[in-house]
């Protein structure tokens, strides 16, 4: 009887330790490695802007790494833009984007997860406006 009790307590302790060691899924917006082309297009229309230069791709990656996962229920209007990220002509990820006006925040969403948004700061949105906005306005 005593051995059974010790065994059950040991199993309980191990279960508690294992469950405490599991990390939550990181709230990071990732689009893949070695991105070498980004295509930004309006959701309505056929106009698009292709970015293949390292400076623009690095700027997009910095903007994305600053994105913060939003909590709560998502109730958004249709996105303004779609951004496709490519590695050697293979699409790695698509994101829907709401670019705020100058000095407003911006928002990203993965099309396959419409219950989660990722916000970017005013500063990062201003960079996105500079990258994308001039082409479409």
From TrEMBL:
Domain of life of the organism encoding this protein: Bacteria
InterPro entries per UniProt: YhfM-like_dom (IPR058780)
Keywords assigned by UniProt, alphabetized: Signal
Domain YhfM-like positions: 34-132
First and last residue of the signal peptide: 1-23
Listed transmembrane segments: none
Keyword Mitochondrion found: no
Name under which the protein is recorded: YhfM-like domain-containing protein
Organism (species): Alkalicoccobacillus plakortidis
């Amino acid at each position: 009887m005593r051995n059974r009790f010790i065994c059950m307590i040991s199993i309980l302790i191990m279960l508690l330790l294992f469950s405490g060691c599991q990390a939550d899924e990181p709230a990071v917006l990732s689009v893949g490695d070695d991105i070498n082309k980004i295509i930004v297009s309006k959701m309505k229309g056929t106009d698009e802007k292709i970015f293949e230069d390292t400076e623009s791709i690095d700027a997009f990656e910095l903007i994305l790494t600053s994105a913060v996962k939003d909590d709560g229920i998502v109730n958004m209007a249709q996105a303004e833009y779609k951004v496709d990220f490519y590695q050697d002509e293979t699409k790695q990820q698509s994101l829907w984007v709401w670019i705020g006006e100058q000095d407003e925040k911006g928002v990203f969403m993965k099309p396959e997860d419409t219950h989660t948004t990722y916000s970017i700061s005013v500063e990062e949105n201003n960079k996105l406006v500079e990258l994308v906005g001039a082409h479409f306005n």
